[in-house]
Amino acid sequence: MILGVDVGGTFTDAVLLTAEGFVTGKAPSTPHDQSAGVMAAIEEALGSAGAQAADIERLVHGMTVGTNALLEGRTARTALVATQGFTDLEELGRQARPDLYRLCVAGPAPLVGLELRVPADERCGPEGEARPLDEESLRERLGRLDGEVEAVAVCLLWGFRHPAHERAAAAVVATALPEAHVSISHEAAAVFREHERCVTTVVDAAVSPLLRRYLTRLAARTREAGLPDPEVMLSSGGVAAADTAAAHGSWTVLSGPAGGAVAAARAARLAGAGEAVGLDMGGTSCDVSLVLDGRVAVTGGREVGGRSLALPMVDVHTVGAGGGSIAWRDEGGALRTGPRSAGADPGPACYGRGGDQPTVTDANLLLGFLDADSPLAGGVALDRSAAERAVGRLARDLGLSVEDTAAGIVRVAGTEMAQAVRVVTVERGIDPRSLTLVAFGGAGPLHGAAIAEELGMERVVAPVAAGVLSALGLAVSERRRDLVESVLLAGEDMTREAVAAVVDRLGARGREELGAPRAELRATYELRYRGQAFELPIAGELAPDPAQLRASFDRAHAERYGYDDAKAELELVTVRVAAALPGSEPAAARAAPAERLGTRRARFGEDWHDAQLVGPGSGRVEGPAILTLAGSTITVPPGWSVQADAEAVVMER
Predict the structure, then answer these.
(1) Residue 613 lies in a domain
(2) Is residue 12 a contact partner of residue 34, using CB atoms and an 8 Å limit?
(3) Which end of the chain is less crowded, N or C, counting CB atoms within 10 A of the terminal residue's CB?
(4) How far is CA 270 from the centre of its chain?
(5) Do residues 87 and 201 share a domain?
(6) Using omega within 30 degrees of 0 as the cis cutoff, is the peptide bond preceding 546 cis?
(7) Do 43 and 131 share a structural domain?
(8) Phi and psi (nearest 5°) for 646?
(9) Per-residue pLDDT tens for 580-617?
(10) Distance (Å) of CA 307 to CA 14, 56, 153
(11) For the whole model, what pTM was predicted?
(12) Residues 131 and 197 in one domain
């Protein structure tokens, strides 16, 4: 048996793969100590399956410890060792800014304060050492640091190509500050662009001590319960051992969303859709991912909390639109939702735990999409009167009826999520109308059809396991090690042999670190026209023909930017190699015919309808309808129809 456990903002989900299929468990998240919620969800899953801890072969975990620490600024006290004259790299940043005309918007505060920036007297250039490292002066400067230093980041110029000085500096740090965690740039992110490499290394150092403490605490609890040590989902969509994740905290900052993105790609493949958009709407936020050629799209770097990380990550765009997102009236009198959330405690007003702010979940209850007489997954009973009071206060401020306010809350939240889909599709030259929308999370299937209508999409897939799909993604994810190396090859230097040598070297390292000599290797090449500032990733063979790379890049460039340049010289900037072992697949399930449970009044758009109520199972249903699954609810508007089977509910119009 394999167990996947995902920590969300509101609920912690567990999925247990068994010989007959899978069973699920759900428990409220425990922000003060995520491991408590993890163990509660595991206990429920084991109880549902009638299984014992000793039956579990692997435990795969996705969490938000690193993400929360980074976004909330609760990181370890971190020092930076950098080449003399370059200690301010993290703070200087880039000239680019997200809003062209908002000149006064500042980026996030640097994680390393001025007093903790330590210059190293050394210098390397592209060809190698220009000035040796003065270890004695570095040791002296480290000894003058005030207060406790929990972590140290080492990032020297050209360290990604010539790492000897970084290794020597790390050895000095280990003797001068033996209790501190040390992150080295050529291990954390062996790429050029000194700012991004420095920021990645600093984040790695600042997050790793917190992640290590959390994983140590969780491992102690799992061992006490007789469970195996946890493996951890990385931001790239692969799984690694807990000690690997603890040593490189930056690799896990998108651990939570990555599991859902991997599962969305699997659901799209099973539904016969190689191109799709994953929409993961939970209680706190909505994560949107892109599926291309049956695999979740992975980017070579992105911003998290305003900090540029040069790491392979699933290409996820997040907005603050979840079931617990709070609705409010802005200064101009407009109705807004999020990004503030009621979270897991106290939660939406209808949870009856003391929350009094109107949320998207409260609105869905008042519109008839949720049933006050049927508890949500995790045993949460719904209080319709509390929802009416919360939404009613906002309705009075807006001068609207309670029903119109509830409908407005749902529509505004849907618009936020539709815009997030546009970010990963329209803004990249991809027409969403040609894609399938995979809606999951506890609230995703509630809004999937409405979002698809706004975007002109014709097909929505809601997996049967939608409510716990991220946890299922963890259980079926491949074990993987991602490696990267900036090579900067162009012209006659970019030969098949030269590129293959880099792939072979990275692949050998990946297989060794994974402990799998026969692991599958996949290569991605980041290319650009000489003179450009940024690259496009192109998947290719392990020993690629430069002419084929050129043709693929020209085509990708034309799709992204509307043109290609046949005369420009091509430059290979970075090679990325993934060594992977396939994940597990749950046993095929069989679904009985869906049970018709009567009707319920529900509001779709401006009108109220008698919507069919349908329980889990297979069959065809015409909208308007409401389908109830274990962990999620699917709304089928008028004009839509669904075909359900054991794996998914497919909606079309």
Answers:
(1) no
(2) yes
(3) C
(4) 21
(5) yes
(6) no
(7) no
(8) -70, -20
(9) 998 888 776 666 677 888 999 999 989 999 999 988 88
(10) 31, 38, 15
(11) 0.86
(12) yes
